[in-house]
Amino acid sequence: MIEVGPLRIPEAELVERFVRSAGPGGQNVNKVATAVELRFDIATSPSLPEPVRARLLSRRDRRVTSDGVLVLSAQRFRTQERNREDARERLAHFIEAGLHAPKKRVATRPTRASKERRLAGKRERSTIKQGRAGRDWD
Questions:
Q1: Could you tell me the pTM of the whole model?
Q2: Which alpha helices (DSSP H) does 7-136 contain, by range?
């Protein structure tokens, strides 16, 4: 069971597959399947509330497939158990990011002073550039 804030995700919703790691490592890499591929179906998970599910699916993340399945690959460590823990921690961080609703932006208007400062700066730049204009000095 993975606990993320108020949510609890049961083991049955996680699909783990152990594969061989890529990269250097000698004979160990060729013999032992230490890398973990963790799959979590966001779209059909009954343990996720609807607003959290919508936020997670709307994120533009390459790890989420078009079917709404999150695929995490962990192969940082040499042991299967450490990679398994790493994948689960990353899943918890991903779900935690969807728990918090983004704050609504409150529309504001620029103050009169800020408008005047902006226009004064524009006038200043204009006079500098007009001074650079080619004049006939003869």
A1: 0.67
A2: 27-31, 50-58, 80-99, 112-132
